[in-house]
Design goal:
252 residues, mainly alpha, Four Helix Bundle (Hemerythrin (Met), subunit A)
Length: 252
């Protein structure tokens, strides 16, 4: 009986430990950005995203979802996917732009905070297939993959400086947009038909392991463009806009 109680406590603690790891990675990314270690900061943000994905999934799978865990996760996310990527962007590309660069970095932080606040309000949505607006971990991860691929800080006169600043601002605005992004929460990998997804997932994982600097930004770019392209295609095809449910799926 005592052993079973210890096991249950361990199961309850596991999501919290993963969320703590997420927070540690976010804080470490901030420190690395201050030091100018852009590549390492980007890696820690990406790891934070993986831990954030795991803590929620494990909590739901084990039935250990709690109000404390939800609030703790949200507070950790604002550090890892709001402050940390903004500091990364500022140290990497925005600082030479002066006040404009500072404003773009702050725009990312405030949009991430609004995204997380909106999620907290709509947390009990019945819609699982889509996110309304870009998820903040995906926005942070997209910025981190770009920094990981090109860690050298460009100067103001560099041809890549302005596009990277615009990328940061675009990611911020996508978080508070109304674009509907696929969540993939409805994928049942334990289903009999899961073999349909196994091969693409395996190929993607191999690509990330072998060519991470190229595959990760490509995947991020494809996902970022997916929702706007679907919206544009609906407009030109004359298809009726999908009626939104009273509560949409918002995820940090």
């Amino acid at each position: 009986m005592a052993r079973q109680r210890k096991l249950q406590r361990g199961i309850y603690l596991l999501p919290t430990l993963l969320t703590t790891g997420n927070l540690v990675c976010g804080f470490t990314a901030v420190v690395m950005s201050f030091r100018g270690e852009i590549g390492r900061a980007a890696i820690f943000i990406i790891i934070a995203g993986v831990l954030d994905l795991l803590d929620g999934r494990i909590a739901r799978m084990t039935g250990t979802t709690t109000e404390f865990g939800s609030e703790f996760d949200s507070l950790a996310d604002i550090v890892s996917f709001g402050v940390a990527p903004a500091m990364l962007a500022y140290s990497w590309v925005l600082e030479p732009f002066g006040r404009v660069g500072w404003l773009v970095a702050f725009l990312f932080v405030i949009c991430a905070a609004m995204r997380l606040a909106r999620y907290n309000i709509q947390a009990h949505s019945g819609e699982r297939r889509h996110f309304v607006g870009l998820s903040s971990p995906v926005a942070a991860g997209s910025l981190a993959t770009a920094a990981f691929a090109f860690p050298t800080a460009p100067g103001v006169g560099s041809p890549t400086a302005l596009p990277l600043m615009l990328l940061t601002a675009t990611l911020a605005l996508l978080m508070v947009s109304r674009f509907r992004y696929r969540s993939f929460k409805d994928l049942a990998l334990l289903d009999r038909r899961s073999y349909i997804y196994v091969l693409p997932l395996a190929v993607t994982m191999v690509g990330v392991l072998i060519w991470p600097r190229w595959v990760m930004p490509a995947l991020a770019g494809a996902y970022l463009l997916s929702a706007p392209l679907v919206s544009v295609s609906r407009v030109f095809s004359g298809a009726p806009a999908r009626k939104e449910l009273p509560h949409e799926s918002f995820d940090g």
